[in-house]
Specification:
By secondary structure, this protein is of the alpha+beta class. It folds into two domains: 40 residues; 45 residues, no CATH class. The chain has four helices and three strands, in the order E-E-E-H-H-H-H. The N and C termini lie far apart (49 Å). About 5% of the residues have low confidence.
């Protein structure tokens, strides 16, 4: 069996083989893609593998300090999807501009990570 996931930023469709989680490229020369097409053609309700229009960009964030505290104080390994991609991009930008402030947040929480300033 297969499933289709659409990237929330780009709208690009990915075919996922459920038994092993493999992502299958939509390439007619790919054997796995050919097997997917044959399987999908037999379904009464075929999976939609067309790309979607990407969503509009998120509204601007007014206070990146608050987001930085939330992001840096959260166990990032347990977060997925929108949290890492959306907030992560904002915070990484903030950290690059404000490495001393980011370091102070990490130090205040006892997180043993050192940030090098932008050279």
């Amino acid at each position: 069996m297969y499933s289709v996931e659409h990237d929330f930023r780009s709208g690009v469709a990915s075919i996922v083989r459920d038994r092993d989680g493999a992502r299958i490229p939509q390439d007619p020369r790919n054997k796995d893609f050919a097997e997917f097409l044959a399987w999908n053609a037999k379904r009464p309700d075929p999976l939609d593998v067309t790309d979607r229009e990407p969503p509009p960009p998120p509204p601007p964030v007014k206070d990146r300090n608050i987001l930085a505290e939330i992001y840096l104080a959260t166990d990032l390994e347990t977060r997925t999807g929108v949290w890492n991609d959306f907030v992560g991009a904002l915070i990484l930008d903030w950290v690059n501009v404000n490495p001393d402030a980011a370091q102070a947040i990490l130090d205040a929480r006892g997180i043993g990570v050192k940030i090098r300033g932008g050279d």
